[in-house]
Amino acid sequence: MKTNEIIKQISFEDLQKFVIAYAKQDVQFETSIREKFAPATDDSWLDRIMDRFDDIIDDFSDGDYIHYRSAFGFECEMSELFERLKKNKNFACSKRALETICFFTESLGDLSIDDSNGTMTVLMDKLKNLWNRTLKEANEDTLTEAREWIEQELFKKRLWMAEDLLYEIYEKRFNTAEDLIAKIKFFDKQIKNEAKEESDFIKQLHIGQWVCERATVMKKLKKKNEEIKAYLNKYAEYDEPAYMLFDILHKEKDFHAAEECLLKLNNLPKHKNRFNSKAEEKLKEMYLESRQIKKYKSALKNLIVKDNSMDSYKEYKNFLKTDEWPSALRELLDSIKGLDFKMQILAYEKMVDELYKAFCKAKDASRYDYNTFQLFQEFGKDLCPKYESEIVVMLAQYFNKAIVTANDRKAYRETVHQMKILSHYNGGTECIQKLKADWSIQYKKRPALIDELKKV
Predict the structure, then answer these.
(1) DSSP structure string for 47-73
(2) Which of 45, 62, 298, 352 is the most buried (most CB within 10 A)?
(3) Is 5 a residue whose pLDDT tops 70?
(4) Are 401 and 407 within 8 A, CB to CB?
(5) Is residue 24 over pLDDT 90?
(6) 337 φ, ψ to 5°?
(7) pLDDT tens digits, one per residue of 72-117
């Protein structure tokens, strides 16, 4: 009897049993077949999925650690597993879907792995898709269970690899009135817990974050602005709540209160010796809108001199009248302490003589050859044509010095490759030929160098 005739006579149930029995020779194939044949009410195939998940971790772990050389293979196997779940129509509707993705998140969240190639970023993105699909199909009880599980894990702070994923899901999902009220309680608990931290940096980072999250939830609950502002004002010593309060006051055009909020923040000890560019940027925008021109110009100058902001420099120049600019420019140049930023401005303004003096000063002060070469790359062409011959001479001096300290093929190759910059200048090609000729004689006992010179 022919095969197709046998298949026609056999029942679907018997055919299923036969295929599954045959598939037992390959565990992964058997799991896939069971997924395909399993009715929507049968969740037993998820046990095999979780077993497979554990097997992948075991297969690629050396002890309790996944090394760099194993990470890519681990990523591929795990991605394939997640892809299978994504394609399975029964997964999101399963009563055990939440249990499964919580299991995945818990296992990957504190995984010891060399993540140099971004393996976990890829896997967390795929896991996020499973979370979103599951929560989209979930009933009210499952959503509440998911929210409570995420809150519990965020509070414990143990799933450091999955923290960003959990924050994002927690923020975007769970937006019923009941969920939002629960979030308020959770944020209060987090803030109280973070206040016990000894590190001021951790307090600044985490408390500020949770306070802003709570204020955002208050907005969703349609709380009055006065209540939100009063809450934020309690924590205005932290940067992010202060910025959020400023934005509300700015939007309400309460410019005096908005300015006072950030000036108080800037006067705190933590900002005394550290310029707060974000606060100054916000104040600058408000001063312009409210036509407080003197304060606007002062904020711009602060951003230029203290933050080395080229964008603020251009904004300041465009704002001033043409006849005001020469004296304002000189005032700025006298105030700027950073030589590199000063050279950027001199190059932008085509003040070649001053740029050349600053360039020579920076070159002489540079302790590292790499920094010196960067100066030529960044400002060499800005000094042309007036100082073109001087640049060629200085480059030749730089390369003669560099080749003395070079002591292996890699260093020779880098120096010879850098020499190509000379070809961008008049007389530079001739200089390259002279360097090649000189080095071929002077360093004839360095075959690796001679070999690299032939490639120029």
Answers:
(1) HHHHHHHHHHHHHH-BTTBB-HHHHHH
(2) 45
(3) no
(4) no
(5) no
(6) -90, -30
(7) 999 999 999 999 888 888 888 888 999 999 999 999 999 999 999 9
CB–CB of 125/132 below 8 Å? no
pLDDT greater than 80 at residue 25: no
3-state secondary structure of 113: strand
Q: Which amino acid is at 119?
A: T
Please report how the helices 177-194 and 200-220 are oriented relative to each other, as an axis angle in degrees rounded to 10: 160
Alpha helices in 235-351 (DSSP H): 239-251, 255-266, 269-272, 277-289, 293-307, 310-319, 325-335, 339-348
Among candidate residues 349, 338, 333, the one with its CA nearest the CA of residue 307: 338
At residue 275's C-alpha, the angle toward residues 269 and 279, to 5°, is 95
Residue 342 exposed, middle or buried by CB count within 10 Å (0-12, 13-18, 19+): buried
The residue type found at 53 is: F
Averaged pLDDT score across all residues of the chain: 90
Residue from 50, 63, 173 nearest 103 by CA: 50
Contacts 24+ apart (CB under 8 A), 348-356: 348/310, 348/313, 350/382, 352/382, 352/383, 352/386, 352/387, 353/386, 355/379, 355/382, 355/383, 356/383, 356/386, 356/387, 356/390
Q: What DSSP character marks residue 25?
A: T
Confidence grade of residue 22 (pLDDT, cut at 50, 70, 90)? low
Tokens representing 50 are: 């979780």
- Label residue 159 left, alpha or beta by phi (over 0 means left) and psi (-120 to 50 means alpha): beta
Higher pLDDT, 202 or 260: 260
Contact 74, 119 (CB under 8 A): yes
CA distance linking residue 428 with residue 181, whole number of Å = 71
Each residue of 339-371: pLDDT tens digit? 999 999 999 999 999 999 999 999 988 877 778
Among the residue ranges 35-39, 225-229, 351-355, the one predicted with the least confidence is: 35-39
Q: How many helices (H) and strands (E) does the chain have?
A: 26, 0
Report the chain's terminal Cα–Cα distance, integer Å.
76
276-325 pLDDT, tens digit each? 999 999 999 999 999 999 999 999 999 999 999 999 999 999 999 999 99
Q: Give the dihedral sign, CA 228/229/235/238.
A: positive
CA distances from 172 to 166, 219, 403 (A): 10, 14, 58
If phi > 0 it is left, if psi is from -120 to 50 it is alpha, else beta; for residue 360 that is alpha
Tokens 């005032």 -> residue: 331
